[in-house]
Amino acid sequence: MAKEINLLSRGIFEKSFMDSKAKTRTVSRKEVILGHVIGPLGLILVVNTIAALVEKFFTQQTGAIYGVGNVEMIQFMGGRYEFVMTAAKLLAVAMGLVNGWLIQHTQSRQGRMRPWYLIVGFFSIIIGCLIFLFPGQNGLGENYWYYFFFLLICYNAVGATYFYLFRDTIVSLTSRSPSEKLRLKFARQVCWTLISGILIGMLTSMVVLPLWLEKDINGYPVLMITLSIIAIPLLLLEYFYTRERITEDVTHEVGMENENKIPLRQQVKALLTNKYFVILMILMTVSGIMDNFKGGNVQYFYIKFLLGGAENPMMYTIYQVVTGIPLGIGAIVIYPLAKKFGVKNVCCVGYALVLIGGIVGWMFPTNLTIVLASGFLRQVGMLPHAYVFATLLCYAYDSVEHRSGFRLEGMLGVAIIVAIQNVIYAPFAGGFESGILKLGFVDVEGIMPSVAVTDFMTMAFYLFDIILAAISLLLLPMVNVEKKLPTINADLLEREKQAALARGEEWIDPEELAHREEAQREADRITDLREHCAKKGLDFDTENQKYLDKQATKQRKAEEKKAKAKK
């Protein structure tokens, strides 16, 4: 009999000081804020800044090392960059399978995904800093490019691969409640979109690039080291204030040893026979192709060379302000709209706006007024995609579990599907940067692109948005999993109940369990307050009444606000 492999079942992740600080059965407000809003900001800052700057850094390096007149070498480097990025994506396929194997065979008191996220998070921060070392002319010669491309491959294949896996999966492992999943996914997506879209996107194009990095290539490592110092404590915060409740439930219900024995063929079949999962994978693949091709520089170059940003730096500000407004508004309105009308419905309306805006903008690519209107419309349309679309995948996993009887996040079957996605992504990785370099263009101050290059920039700016919107409008109406969630969750809860009774254990209804946890928290509060009063010489009854009065005031204000909203 083969020896059972249980990774991380010994060592630091079995120590109590590594336990999650999220102790309640239901997701608390503190867990949402610290674990799913503030904590993720750390790696989001690092990952999105690398995505926004690495291609620009590469083009600057190419120009600095070879000079703008060396067209042959510039074209050669464009091809080399495309090859390296394709290799990174193909290696990410293998790493996706490795990640699935690692997670499936991980048995720790901290869960399956969180420990690896902490490990890989530190790895990503270190590699991200090293990528930007040795900017400008240097004495490493051709060896520099081996160093740069090796780190780029490591980062994309290892760090980024697990980061996106955790980002897309942790919510579905946190709670079964559809409302909690929507709340958590929305919170994380708000954090992701606002930071990447407004803070990083706007600051990069409006301030960091035109006023600093384009003038001083040595600023890249300074920026990344600063962001890394900020990211480390936030990474720890995210780790300690997230919890894999579903992992705990499933492991308790069927046993880790039984879950690990689910045949790979059965896992893949459960996924590929679920139409909701398949459709969402198709849409996410199209979105991934778009992101991989466009990279982080399309908008910057479009504004610079088609809207006059090279002569008037205010163009960056104008465009970012106009198109950034919807991101801020969306953080307020999309969540209640999704709750009222459904995630699928608001996404469909959004994709229709993207389609209209993309077509109109492509027809008039240099008309500032139309381009701004198009950009505003596309950003409004992308709000559901940015903030709530991923919630549908969480719902799809519930549907898969309902039909198959086992949970699949982090299992090898999911890793294989993700690997297939990466194979499809691979040919498009770095497509924009390699495209303009192959056309003989390198971004050096005072050099203007040819018509062929600007046409390529326009195509990259609009075409993939149009394709994503069109395919989404065709397929998404078939994803009606939201309507079935009440039945699905009721059945899954009944299964948990029957499994507990079969083991001879007491079954406690989740609502009753929540009441018990609340009662325990109140008892713990009173105990802590008594100890505090005894230590400080305070009167317990007085201090306790202060607390109760404060809570009563909060409750009254909440009820007044709720009643006012109903009027």
- Cα Rg: 26 Å
Please count the beta strands (DSSP E, at least 2 residues each): 0
Question: What characteristic shape results from the CA principal axes?
Answer: globular
Count of alpha and pi helical runs = 22
The CATH topology of the largest domain: Growth Hormone, Chain: A
User: How far from one another are the termini?
Assistant: 68 Å
Task: Give a written overview of the molecule.
The chain has 2 domains: 27-255 and 264-491, Growth Hormone, Chain: A, CATH 1.20.1250.20; 516-566, no CATH class. Helices cover 76% and strands 0% of the residues. The protein contains 22 helices and no strands. The chain has helices at 29-38, 41-66, 71-104, 114-131, 143-169, 178-213, 219-240, 245-254, 256-259, 264-272, 275-294, 298-306, 314-341, 343-363, 368-387, 391-404, 412-425, 431-438, 451-475, 481-502, 510-536, 540-566. The chain starts with 28 loop residues before the first helix and ends with a helix.
